[in-house]
Design brief:
Four copies of one chain form a homotetramer.
Chain A: H1 8-32, H2 35-42, H3 47-53, H4 56-68, H5 75-79, H6 84-96, H7 107-117, H8 123-146, H9 152-171, H10 173-179, H11 181-185, H12 189-218
Helix pairs in contact in A: 1-2, 1-4, 1-7, 3-4, 6-8, 6-12, 8-9, 9-12
Chain B binds a DNA duplex (21 and 21 nucleotides) through helix 1 and helix 3.
DNA sequence: AATGAATGAGCCTTCATTCAT
DNA sequence: GATGAATGAAGGCTCATTCAT
């Protein structure tokens, strides 16, 4: 791995750059963000980017990597859930809380949204490090709920249905608020989690019943 | 009204520009797309953009407007449905088919996705012309299904849940395919429509029952 | 002479173009004035300039020629003056009135000022048609006043002294007004003519006396 | 204060840019001068203008400011004059020498002439820093000559009369030479100074006498 | 005679990058 | 390790001009 600077002040500069770049990339996207914007906000010279990351895109990649770290922290919570419904609720909560958690800088979610809408070479890392594990986690929960007769496709589709509901709330809140001012004015996180959990669980329950009947008929 | 050119050849040039710009804006986004790219693909001189649309951004706005036209065509189909379930299925079909319809150029959906992920001043038009009418259409269907006791918030949340499921399939197919290669290899449009319809309908059915019980208890 | 169009409507277009171009060249100068500005103000198509004048610079030259016409009209007034002092006063009046005469469009003076400060190829015409005759006229008056002993150089210098006084009042009124607000607020054309005439005449009178003494001594 | 570069080489580049820009702005005026011309003559990259002055116009303003410096140097000479006539001669000499002094770059006078003929936002600085002090200096001299009875208007008009004579010699030499080839061939700076001084002094003397008579009559 | 449409050239500016210190 | 200075490349836009009608 190149460009690993050991000096303490070097690490400090790196950190300031990643922080500033994260915010600005999230605000404007990869192309509209300029190096001058980033270095100005970071309070360093513009040549520092070339020194620490050799490239604007390398900085972007580093920012993405940074954004993906710490996302796995809530996984244990989900694993410890006893009932599948609890697991489902915990999973949905994790998604919705992407927007609120203060343990990570606020720009990470927005940044990932940009990357999904307009993928760069960094998309692979996003999929592998962030989304893939979540999908697998979720698939496990769904498999538990749907029972042993569920096909991989059914599990996949169900997973997408749940993820999609969360996705809009997390990444397109602005549009939702514009469409539904009454939601914007009285925004209650728990309400949304409750709705998606109920909506999804009842749909999964129905799927489970259908699968059970199908499997019974097949025997 | 400025910039309305009447000559036939002018209209032709406008069309070529919008076509080329649509593709390139969809590929690269507003900032990364260059005027040279667009005019080269359109086969016209770069000054033509200034002549027909005074600005790069005005061209972008025109492209967005163009993308939004023709989206309302399937509304009648939905209005003619007899049962709510049929209406729901027709609505979901309309969403999913955004990706496949050949009556419109292929770039429109991608372009709208960009606009949602990284809104510009053109977002207002997208929301008002494209999304708002769909949301109202859907809310009517949902209201029919949930029955008279449903609150506005319940209808809103249910609508977002359905929209969200379609959204991922339409706008993030690339990511879905990467995550689920078996879906990519054997992609069946009807399967997806079937799944989302069933998933959503059973969830709505469950909501309806709860609401019914709640309203009964209240009396 | 090329580009002499005979049709009546063509002459009309030419006239409108020269009028509009005169104003805009006077406002902004040759380079800063754009063809679009001019044709917009003239209410004609931009290709008309190329058709009637073949060139932006040819249009400018035509405008200059236009501006120079009609300047000779007051010459007879001066020629008819009986005493040299009257002639001097009439000459100064002619200069000062360049700014006020309503028989010609108001932009001509400003335009000539531009040409003097930043000469183009059109300067020759300005000098030959506008300035040269005036200078010769003035030199005659001055020669009358100074008497037969005056050298050409003395006449020349005296002429420049008189012209220069008028020049500032005519071409740099804006600066004068800024420097002397009390003059701006109570601007009296006659006062200025009176001052320059007295100032110049007394100076010329003094010159005449010196020349007389010098010539007397020489004999 | 932005744009103050401290490094020695930066100062050197700034100086080269101002020098080159001064010459080219003087040759062609603000609009006709191109950044490429300037940077080529200065031997620097075109982006240097953006780096040192953020703008073409900011560069122009800096050039004007530069042109105005050092103009006040001869003021003491005038202040030290004993008789009013000496002061008047020194003042006229200062004006005429604007064209010849080699202590300043040769373009400054031409540049100021452009600015007067076609004012930009930089005119304010020209008036305040260059012209205003000279006018006040001159008004003092004239007030001494005319005596206590002179009105402000009389002093103002007299000042303009003197300034105007110098103005033509300084700013329109080209035209003068074209009109009077014999002056061009045998140009003697002292002759001109002598003429303007005599011409003006005799006129002022005459004014003083009139004022004296008027004041005497009023009592 | 006039115009709508189109164009090539060039301008100012910005950007990511690199160099020298 | 960090920075002030400099730069080549390219971008958006404007302009005078020309073409086809």
């Amino acid at each position: 791995m190149p460009n690993i600077k050991n000096n303490a002040s070097a690490q400090e500069t790196r950190r300031k750059l990643i922080e500033a770049a994260g915010e600005i990339f999230a605000e404007r996207g990869l192309h509209a963000a300029t190096i001058k914007d980033i270095t100005t906000r970071a309070g360093v010279n513009c040549a520092a980017i070339n020194y620490h990351f050799s490239d604007k895109f390398e900085l972007y990649a580093a920012v993405i990597r940074e954004a993906l770290q710490g996302c796995a922290s809530t996984f244990e919570v989900i694993s410890n859930c006893k009932t599948p419904e609890e697991g489902l609720r915990a999973y949905i909560t994790m998604h919705i809380d992407d927007m609120y958690t203060r343990s990570r800088p606020t720009w990470t979610t927005t940044l990932v949204a940009h990357e999904l809408a307009q993928p760069t070479a960094a998309l692979d890392a996003v999929v592998e490090d962030l989304i893939q594990p979540r999908v697998e986690l979720m698939n496990g929960i769904i498999r538990d709920i749907l029972g042993p007769g569920a096909t991989e496709k059914e599990i996949t589709y169900a997973g997408i249905s749940i993820w999609g509901q969360c996705y809009l709330h997390v990444h397109h809140r602005e549009v939702i608020f514009r469409l539904h001012p009454h939601v914007a004015q009285n925004y209650v996180r728990e309400e949304i989690i409750e709705h998606i959990t109920n909506f999804s669980f009842s749909a999964l329950d129905n799927m489970r019943e259908r699968i059970r009947q199908r499997e019974a008929a097949r025997k």
